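Can't paste images in this forum, so I'm doing it all in text. The chain is below; anyone willing to post the predicted structure tokens underneath?
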Amino acid sequence: MTNCRLNIAQLNLFLSTEEKIQASKYYTNYLRRLYIISHGILRYILRYILSYYVKQHPKDIEFVYSEYGKPFLKDSSIQFNMSHSHDIVSYVIALNYRVGIDIELRDSNLDVQELASLVFTPTEYSFFTSLDIYEKFKFFTIYGLKKSH
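Text version of the structure:
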């Protein structure tokens, strides 16, 4: 994403009004810029890729958003998703299948136990706390699978 940082102003032009408002809510320039990059790429580059599959001009591609803020194409069997974390952004596209993607930077300072208490059910959390340290590192895989359902 380093090269994209040079084009923040250009990528910002592709954002919807709602996305520009969302970007302005980030407290740091770093996070604001990452949001603009990931969503600008979604609107600009991914729109061209998707236009090939739906046989529409890129300008005619309309994104709508789920109640959780995930983008999708209106009236299409093409499914896609995106995730970003720090300097990494990833996209996935599929035909006739719901897809999800979640990437997270591994941070040794992250309190995995605290995060688990926030996202797991009481039963899941109880199981998680019984794991040894090696098994707890698998937390991100479990967490990613849980988020996608």
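The first helix runs from residue 2 to 5. Helices lie at 2-5, 8-13, 17-24, 29-54, 112-119, 122-129, 133-136, 139-147.
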